[in-house]
Amino acid sequence: MRENTYVRVCGHVRSMGGQRTIAAFRMSPIMDMNELTYHTLEVVHSHLMLNKLSGGSGGGTTYGNSMQTNSEQNFGESNGGGGVVSGLSSVQNQVHMLIRSNNTEQGANINDVCQQLRGVPEKAIRDAIEFLSSEGHIYSTIDEDHYKATDS
Questions:
Q1: Which end of the chain is more exposed for a tag (fewer CB within 10 A), N or C?
Q2: pLDDT of residue 57
Q3: 110 CB-side CA count, 13 A
Q4: In the chain, which stretches have pLDDT less than 70?
């Protein structure tokens, strides 16, 4: 990457021992400046929603669906509570829904996900986790075997 180039970064922020670290999985240049505008709108939307959820004055509009994006910038909708995410395969959706439904602080363990999806080969589950992580749908928490959904 050259200086003064807008880029899209996929990764996650971890907090260990009071120290925050950033792990970037992928970085690619932005070719369409509409993506930057979309990101700005998404940040404003998230800020308003967080204010509203915390009891602050986030405006009077009720938002039913939250914005999300993937690396191809296919604009989709989150189904609020637990529906399928468009653009994902059946296995990816099953893994995503299981990880999303886990309410523990450390997140869902890969071995637990494999046990719950007995008919699915472990390699397919691990491939789905790798894909979901690189696309920003999930992130690792305490180690590389525990994951939480970004929309939970």
A1: N
A2: 52
A3: 21
A4: 15-16, 54-84, 86, 152
The verdict on residue 80 lying in a domain is yes
User: What pLDDT is stored for residue 66 in this prediction?
Assistant: 38
> Rounded to an integer, what distance in angstroms lies between the CA atom of residue 103 and that of residue 72?
29
Q: How many Cα atoms sit within 13 Å of 149 on the Cβ side?
A: 20
Positive or negative: CA dihedral 84, 88, 91, 95: negative
In this structure, is residue 50 part of a structural domain? no
Residue from 149, 27, 141 nearest 85 by CA: 149
CATH of the domain at 82: 1.10.10.10
3-state secondary structure of 89: coil
Structural domain boundaries, residue 107: 7-31+64-149
Output Rg (C-alpha) for the chain, integer angstroms: 17
Q: Token match 């907090």: residue?
A: 15
- Is 38 within a domain? no
- C-alpha 23/C-alpha 26 separation (Å) is 9
How many structural domains comprise the chain?
1
List the one residue out of 50, 53, 46, 141 whose CA is nearest residue 102. Answer: 141
